[in-house]
Description:
The protein is globular and about 35 Å long. The longest helix is centred in the last third of the chain and has 16 residues, at about 105-120. It is of the alpha/beta class. It has helices at about 30-40, 60-65, 70, 80-85, 105-120, and strands at about 10, 25, 45, 55-60, 90-95. It has one domain (about 10-120). It has a 5-stranded parallel β-sheet, sandwiched between helices. Iron/sulfur cluster (SF4) binds near residues 60, 73 and 74.
Amino acid sequence: MPKAQHTAYTHAYVKMLWLKWHAMASVESEAQALFAQALGYRTFRVIVEGEPLLPNEIPCPNQTHKVTCAQCMLCDGRDSAWERITGRIKKSIAVVVHGSELKGMSKPARFAIAKAKQLREAA
Ligand code: SF4
């Protein structure tokens, strides 16, 4: 059965491990990304321009190829069927924070970025 098409993000990845099959762990640092990934999540990490990617991350295609979330749909958590077929977990996502590049992003993605940006600035 194909996976439902959606994008979803959570900051409550520690409390809700089962969400890894449906949502990205929304994180603000490399340490948080590694922790959430160790818990089994794919991550959606807010970075600043020039910050290096982790080996299992790709930049958000909205920012590199101007695709919309509706076209991309990479932020849909883990995918057991895909993992069974390929033996691999889909890449995690890194998104550069600079507000002008959010055009075409889904509301949940924009919300996750805004919240991560806020938490990152407060840290
Ligand atoms: S465009 Fe970026 S934010 Fe939207 S689904 Fe794809 S990777 Fe996620």
